């Protein structure tokens, strides 16, 4: 979630909606106000000009009567002044005329070409020069009025105090035109705010409309924004929980039939798929971990037993070598038979005891070989079961990879939908800007979903890679175990031959002990028997050494198998740790 002074999506949409509501209204109101003001100004100018034209027209008619002798010039002038300016009152001002359409504060006045005021509503100004009169901006007002009148008529704008309130200064507009009959500059003037009362009313109405729009539009905008932002906020909060590893969240229920409803439905489906994925990975990881414990223990025991067998066989080889050396000594004793039958008998007895011991050692070695054969068969079975489990895990990983691809495809389609929405919103111009923001948020959510799917896909590829290595290692281990079984079986056969040979030696030595009294006469036969015994003993020692070497060679693959099994167990533990990060 954002922090500090940043705005969330709801506030942004609300502000955007209100801006879209108010700005066109304000612009339209201002346009109407200024257009109305302009039209009213034009209407005021027309009214001023019409009154001046009426006065000049009346002067023309009265001038004809003066020329015809029906009126004197003074009578004619008085009639014009009385009609358009007013009769003199007792307060120094002329009585205002109601029939002239010149606005609330409008009036007419007459100057000559030199700027002298001839007739004015404030008749105390009459007969006084005003050529050098200036407004607050330094503009020579009378000069401009006279010049516009002489040049065919025109409007003059300047600032002037009002007759009824000398303390108030306002903009004034005057139309002046030269009378061709008497040489008067006839002028009609009024204040612009007298003509713009209607425009001010429009401005007041605009404020009332804006206040109403602010109230009603805010309610509608809030409802609309909640309708749009609520689904997005719910999805955003749910994505935060998923990012924190919490998949145990309620389904998002959104009844909208638009893209937000589709987004919520797709998100719910994605969560369900992730739950199934995590459960499946967790179950397989536990199964692999449990399956590797027994093979690992068996491999450790087998390694220990192999070490013991190796040591025993080495001892047997050393014993056989000692026995061979002793037989050689017996051969020498036979050549020295003249030393006495007793020494031969004692030596024969000692040799008999040694052969009995060798027979026992051979029997024990044969038992160890049989145990090794059984253990190797057990290892072969465990390795085969582990290989099946690892292959099952590999198949499950491929299924997970397909699901991850579906998630990535959904994210891609959501991203395309957001892009199309942004394009359509851009075509809509100002009215589509809100949808652009929504499309951007949807696209962002789609990209985050795609990133999560890509991370899961990378994890699955790593698991598949480790699983493939485990399968190869299992296959190699199976081959090594099979080879070890063959070697141990050969060793068992060799032990049986050794045992048979030792029994033969023991039998012959018993015979030597029994006929020790006949050694002198049977020395040649004893010599031959001892030579045969020496040969068999040497062969036994050689075979024992070969078995010891083969057993030591078998020990290395067993240790490698132990390391591989331990590595597979660690991979399963890592998978369990990864799945425990998600709460389903």
From TrEMBL:
One of its GO terms (cellular component) is plasma membrane. Residues 298-534 form the Methyl-accepting transducer domain. The keyword Membrane applies. The keyword Phosphoprotein does not apply. GO terms for biological process: signal transduction. It is found in: Cell membrane. CDD domains: HAMP (cd06225), MCP_signal (cd11386). It comes from the Bacteria. Signal peptide: none annotated. Its main location: membrane. It is a multi-pass membrane protein. Residues 226-279 form the HAMP domain. Keywords: Cell membrane, Membrane, Transducer, Transmembrane, Transmembrane helix. The chain crosses the membrane at residues 202-225. Pfam families: HAMP, MCPsignal, sCache_2. Belongs to the methyl-accepting chemotaxis (MCP) protein family. This is Methyl-accepting chemotaxis protein.
């Amino acid at each position: 979630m954002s922090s500090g002074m940043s705005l969330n999506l709801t506030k942004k949409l609300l502000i955007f909606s209100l801006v879209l509501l108010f700005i066109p209204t304000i612009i339209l109101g201002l346009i109407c106000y200024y257009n109305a003001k302009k039209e009213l100004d034009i209407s005021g100018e027309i009214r001023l000009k019409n009154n001046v034209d009426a006065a000049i027209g009346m002067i023309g008619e009265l001038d004809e009567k003066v020329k015809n002798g029906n009126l004197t010039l003074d009578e004619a002038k008085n009639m014009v002044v009385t009609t358009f300016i007013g009769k003199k009152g007792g307060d120094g001002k002329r009585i205002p005329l109601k029939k002239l359409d010149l606005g609330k504060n409008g009036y007419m006045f007459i100057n000559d070409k030199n700027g002298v005021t001839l007739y004015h509503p404030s008749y105390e100004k009459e007969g006084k020069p005003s050529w050098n009169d200036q407004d607050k901006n330094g503009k020579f007002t009378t000069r401009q009025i006279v010049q516009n009148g002489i040049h065919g008529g025109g409007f003059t704008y300047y600032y002037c105090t009002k007759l009824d309130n000398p303390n108030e200064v306002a903009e004034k507009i005057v139309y002046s035109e030269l009378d061709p009959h008497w040489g008067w500059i006839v002028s009609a003037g009024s204040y612009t705010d007298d003509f713009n009362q209607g425009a001010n009313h429009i401005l007041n109405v605009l404020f009332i409309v804006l206040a109403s729009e602010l109230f009603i539009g805010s309610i509608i905008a809030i409802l609309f924004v909640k309708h749009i932002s609520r689904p997005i906020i719910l999805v955003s909060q749910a994505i935060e929980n998923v990012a924190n590893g919490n998949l145990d969240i309620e389904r998002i229920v959104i009844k909208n039939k638009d893209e937000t409803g589709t987004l919520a439905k797709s998100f719910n489906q994605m969560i369900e798929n992730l739950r199934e994925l995590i459960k499946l990975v967790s179950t397989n990881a536990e199964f692999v971990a449990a399956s590797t414990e027994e093979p690992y223990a068996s491999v450790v025991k087998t390694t220990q037993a192999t070490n013991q067998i190796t040591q025993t066989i080495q001892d047997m080889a050393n014993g056989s070598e000692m026995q061979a050396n002793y037989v050689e000594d017996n051969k020498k004793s036979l050549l020295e038979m003249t030393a006495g039958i007793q020494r031969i008998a004692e030596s024969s007895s000692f040799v008999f005891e040694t052969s009995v011991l060798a027979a026992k050692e051979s029997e024990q070695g044969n038992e160890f070989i049989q145990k090794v054969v059984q253990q190797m068969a057990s290892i072969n079975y465990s390795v085969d079961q582990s290989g099946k489990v690892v292959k099952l895990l590999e198949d499950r990983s491929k299924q997970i990879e397909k699901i991850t691809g579906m998630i990535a495809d959904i994210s891609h389609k959501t991203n395309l939908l957001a892009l199309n929405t942004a394009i359509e919103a851009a075509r809509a111009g100002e009215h589509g800007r809100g949808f652009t923001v929504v499309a951007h948020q949807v696209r962002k959510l789609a990209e985050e979903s795609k990133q999560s799917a890509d991370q899961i896909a990378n994890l699955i590829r790593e698991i598949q890679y480790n699983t493939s290595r485990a399968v190869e290692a299992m296959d190699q281990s199976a081959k090594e175990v099979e080879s070890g079984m063959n070697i141990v079986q050969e060793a068992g056969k060799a032990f049986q031959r050794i045992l048979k040979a030792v029994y033969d030696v023991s039998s012959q030595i018993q015979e030597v002990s029994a006929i020790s009294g006949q050694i002198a006469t049977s020395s040649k036969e004893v010599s031959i028997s001892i030579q045969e015994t020496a040969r068999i003993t040497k062969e036994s020692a050689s075979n024992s050494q070969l078995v010891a070497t083969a057993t030591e060679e078998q020990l290395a693959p067993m240790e490698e198998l132990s390391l591989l099994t331990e590595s597979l167990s660690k991979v399963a533990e890592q998978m369990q740790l990864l799945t425990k990060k998600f709460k389903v």
